[in-house]
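1st attempt posting a full record on here, be nice pls
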Amino acid sequence: MTNQQPARRRGRQRTGAAVSMVRSLCRGLDVLDALAQFKEAALSEVSREVDLPPSTAYRILETLCSRGYAHFNAGSGKYRLGIRAFETGYAFVSQTHLKEAADPVMQALAAKTGESVNLAVLDRGEVVYIHQAEGRGMMRIFTRMGARAPVHCTGVGKCLLAWLPEEEILQHLPAEPFARFTPYTITAKDAFLKTLAKVKRQGFATDDEEREEGVSCVTAPIRDPRGGVIAALSVSGPTTRIRRRGLPVLRSWLKSAGQDISKALAG
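the predicted structure (as tokens):
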């Protein structure tokens, strides 16, 4: 829950046909709005916030959970927004504020490194690439915008998962053994979870030919104003050039770029 308590939402007065046609939808949207104000909220908090009986709020929350718009954390016994809520807003956010904030930073990073810089988000067990600044190299990596890739063999996938609670991480993972794309792909859940723990400690992720032989990347997280990881930024290129540039240098540049984008989003 945030420190500042949001103002309670009460249903507006509506007339005749409008009330009979959209009351249940309005209640559902009120519940979504309430969840957006909290990091997590108990049923009693949601019920009080939207001024609905607990039984009604519970039915709405369970419906939202079944459709992916809300998520119930069994560990805390509380609800929060689900991935579909972010997905629904993706068409606006990804094409406006996030991309606008990221683009100048990405272009500068691509010019500095000479390699392609990608921006990706998480969606139902896959990463989705939403923006790219192309590198200048003769052999540069091109990623089609809207393309999807598995989480377990990409640097952006690792970055997007590493800061989630383990129960949520597991929801995004495929069945074991994970698909093997190269001899370096991680195919076991336990090994992958250890890798995510390392990513979280270090603050960045790598893909060392795990998706495609001869191609490597370094990745850093982008955070929203609350500190949650909402996207990942990567520098991708031929392994020989990535190694020649050096992991410490790329890591430093990427972490700085990710922080710059996060600050722009907060501003």
